[in-house]
Design goal:
This protein has about 220 residues and is of the alpha+beta class. The protein folds into 3 domains: about 90 residues, Conserved hypothetical protein from pyrococcus furiosus pfu- 392566-001, ParB domain; about 35 residues, no CATH class; about 45 residues, no CATH class. The chain has 8 helices and 4 strands. It has a 4-stranded mixed sheet with strand order 1-4-2-3. Helix 1 packs across helix 2 and helix 7 packs across helix 8.
Length: about 220
């Protein structure tokens, strides 16, 4: 378990809240606008994942906007909601000045990137989830499969160094590479006459065929 204790003295006052306490509002999406200078891009996969999350979990945190309704944090959420036909979303209006608002928009994205995954803990939680929940996490099946199949129980020592190797992290590929892989998997299933082959089994078959070609085996 992570130790959250620090050497710092407890704060007597709450965190600074420029402009007063946060007030959540439900406003029509047409009253809001994306930041035209947003430094984060949103791929189709990103928007689709946001839509899956909104559909299953609802909007669990408000979008942060400036007093004029321009999004500071949550541009992707607004776009996903509009494409879904949502009429109103929850927002909070920040009173940060233009410079601090711009800095916060970058910090909100960058700081989240600095966290690491505990793959063992993640795998354990994924194994407890229902299929519908797994589909709302932002990962593709081929990324989740290794974590669902791996056993984190250390093997009995046999003198084989491979017994002590940790499972590899999920492979990251681009959307284009993902499309190529999906097409290859479909061809493998057609050739094998088995539509139930998992992506891992398809990948194994593809690798075996490729290696056989390199060695000159027919």
């Amino acid at each position: 378990m992570t130790n959250l204790s620090t050497e710092a003295e407890p704060m007597e006052d709450p965190l600074p809240m420029p402009g007063g306490d946060l007030l959540v509002e439900w406003v029509p999406v047409e009253d809001l606008s994306e930041d035209p200078e947003n430094v984060r891009s949103h791929s189709d996969r990103n928007i689709s994942s946001l839509q899956s999350s909104l559909t299953r979990f609802g909007q669990q945190k408000p979008i942060v906007v400036n007093p004029d309704g321009m999004v500071i944090a949550g541009n992707g959420t607004l776009r996903a909601a509009i494409q879904m036909g949502v009429e109103k979303v929850a927002i909070v209006r920040t009173q940060l000045g233009a410079g601090d608002a711009r800095a916060y928009a970058i910090a909100d994205n960058r700081i989240a990137e600095l966290a690491d995954w505990d793959w063992e803990a993640l795998g354990g939680q994924l194994q407890l989830m229902e299929p519908g929940q797994l589909e709302s996490l932002g990962w593709e099946n081929y990324e989740v499969e290794p974590l669902l199949q791996v056993s984190w129980t250390p093997p009995e020592p046999t003198g084989n160094l491979g017994d002590f190797m940790l499972p590899a992290s999920p492979v990251k590929i681009t959307d284009v590479q993902r499309d190529v892989f999906s097409e290859a998997c479909e061809k493998v299933r057609d050739l094998e006459g088995d539509s139930t082959l998992s992506e891992g089994e398809c990948l194994e078959t593809i690798c075996k065929v490729y290696l056989a070609g390199l060695s000159g085996d027919s």
